[in-house]
Design goal:
Rossmann fold, Domain 2, N(10)-formyltetrahydrofolate synthetase, Formyltetrahydrofolate synthetase, domain 3, 12-stranded mixed sheet, 4-stranded mixed sheet, 25 strands, 19% strand
Length: 556
């Protein structure tokens, strides 16, 4: 079979205006970026407010392993499958970060015959949204230091500047920096550091804002520093919010593209789920719900991170009520959770599959806690045996759910017809009774502890006195009703990335908390998780190049 990039390059794409026409978007409300991608105008989006909503389906997964799970591939395959059985459906996924593209994870356009195109554009600069976010974030950074340089009228305590810098690349050398150096002409030296752009509060704000007016208000609400009396300094105090909104005025508009089967897709926003809230934009999702009967979206990494934040942050803040959830698993990943090494995954090992199913079962239980019905999608690999697949089906049946073998990677929508029919059956049954995990009024540390105990199955969350005092201070300042955003390794329910399966009674240490007042959540940084990743020993960038015909090779 051809590689992902070869399949994408051979796609018979339709002009983006035709894709928009399928959704009832007039050509004058599509702002084209070439022939195969466009932004949807703010005026059109506003005109759809108040209309009837379609049904929202979440695609999530077990904890990721090097063997792969294929969550985005399944999201695309399910969207195509729903269209194949006669439903009006579209998908909403995130944009790809350049850091993972050139690092270890690769892109975010799906795979095989369940892809979104143009794959190369999506996995590189696309419509420039991430560059706009990086630039808006950097403008605020520059204006903070400029304000201090020119007299510091706001009396900012330079030891308490909370705003870090960002770049959309994995670069561990930038995690901690001292700047500016070089003498008085360059400013006052202080410690700082870089996060990756997808961890920026500006990214989170863009993905949670409802329109431009809300975007600017949220940007103004960003706390950038504290004075010596510990009172907060906001971005609006620096007078940066207006210019930041200008830089983001196009970026907030959703990007319309298509699948290999010419079905519509919104690809917009891209916060990581291990350090941010891991969902595509509220604007894209709510707009899609006005245009289609079924909207399939995804949440990053495993359900312990992405799905929990989708439910507790995005759905809570946007008033969304999902009708069903799909948990993606592969036989290979289940075997790794069952203790099999990556080099041995090709051999049949039913016992390891059964052992690894504990991880899958935990995610099924967790999603059900939110009142959302669940189906399991077994993302098929050619090495899977009938006995291994049956072991998963039997296990899931024992959990009160159904597991369906999906072959969308090799067959496109033909391979997800059974899954699509099951999703429709679940939605039409109307059994979903969604509610978040905890109430708004619960104290912040109790919210963290609730996630640890009910989702991670840990014994407790622990934190230094200074962390607890900081949370209490934010509660006193009026931020106690915010949800919490857990920053934790994606590889385990615990904070130990090597502890696979379904561990219980582990302790989750919270080493730092950050207030994202503009985005509207409190970040709890747990264990050794980094907000600026590093490149692996052999980064994917080493294999990415232009061939003799000027075509890109090596993207995946």
């Amino acid at each position: 079979m051809a590689s992902d990039i070869e399949i994408a390059r051979a796609a018979k794409k339709k002009p983006i205006m035709e894709i928009g026409e399928k959704l009832g978007i007039p050509a004058e409300h599509l702002l084209p970026y070439g022939h195969d991608k466009a932004k949807v105008s703010a005026d059109f989006i506003a005109s759809k407010k108040g209309g009837k909503d379609g049904k929202l389906i979440l695609v999530t997964a077990i904890n990721p392993t090097p063997a792969g799970e294929g969550k985005t591939t399944t999201t695309v395959g399910l969207g195509d499958g729903l269209n194949r059985i006669g439903k009006k459906a579209m998908i909403c996924i995130r944009e790809a970060s350049l850091g993972p593209n050139f690092g270890m994870k690769g892109g975010a356009a799906g795979g095989g015959y369940a892809q979104v195109v143009p794959m190369e554009d999506m996995n590189l600069h696309f419509t420039g949204d991430f560059h706009a976010i990086t630039t808006a974030h950097s403008l605020l950074s520059a204006m903070i230091d400029n304000h201090i340089y020119w007299g510091n009228e706001l009396d900012i305590d330079t030891r308490r500047v909370a705003w870090r810098r960002v770049v959309d690349m994995n670069d561990r050398s930038l995690r901690q920096i001292v700047s500016p150096l070089g003498g008085p002409a360059n400013g006052f030296p202080r410690e700082s550091g870089f996060d990756i752009t997808v961890a920026s509060e500006v990214m989170a704000i863009l993905c949670l804002a409802t329109d431009l007016k809300d975007l600017q208000k949220r940007l103004g609400d960003i706390i950038v520093a504290y004075r010596r009396d510990k009172s907060p300094v906001f971005a609006r105090d620096i007078k940066a919010d207006g210019a930041m909104a200008v830089l983001l005025k196009d970026a907030i508009q959703p990007n319309l593209v298509q699948t290999l089967e010419n079905n519509p897709a919104f690809v917009h926003g891209g916060p990581f789920a291990n350090i941010a809230h891991g969902c595509n934009s509220v604007v894209a999702t709510t707009t899609a719900l006005k245009l289609c009967d079924y909207v399939v979206t995804e949440a990053g990494f495993g359900a312990d991170l992405g799905a929990e934040k989708f439910f507790d942050i995005k759905c809570r803040k946007a008033g969304l009520k999902p009708s069903a959830a799909v948990v993606v698993a592969t036989i290979r990943a289940l075997k790794m959770n069952g203790g099999v090494k990556k080099d041995d995954l090709g051999a049949e090992n039913v016992d390891a599959v059964k052992k690894g199913c504990a991880n899958l079962g935990r995610h099924i239980e967790n999603v059900k806690q939110f009142g959302v019905p669940v189906v399991v999608a077994i993302n098929h690999f050619v090495t899977d045996t009938d006995a291994e697949v049956q072991a998963v089906k039997d296990y899931v049946a024992g959990q009160g759910a159904e597991a369906i073998l999906c072959q969308h990677w090799a067959k496109g929508s033909e391979g997800t017809v059974d899954l699509a029919n099951k999703v429709v059956e679940m939605v039409e049954a109307g059994t979903a009774q969604f509610s978040p995990l905890y109430p708004d009024e619960m104290p912040l540390f109790e919210k963290i502890d609730t996630v640890v105990k009910r989702i991670y199955r840990g014994s407790e969350a622990i934190a230094d006195k200074a962390v607890r005092a900081q949370l209490h201070a934010w509660e006193e300042a009026g931020y106690g009703n915010l949800p919490v955003c857990m920053a934790k390794t994606q590889y385990s329910f615990s904070t130990d990335p090597n502890l696979r399966g379904a561990p219980t009674d582990h302790v989750v240490p919270v080493r730092e908390v950050r207030l994202s007042a503009g985005a509207g959540f409190v970040v709890a940084i747990c264990g050794e998780i980094m907000t600026m990743p590093g490149l692996p020993r052999k980064p994917a960038a080493e294999s990415i190049m232009l061939n003799e015909d000027g075509q890109i090779e090596g993207l995946f």
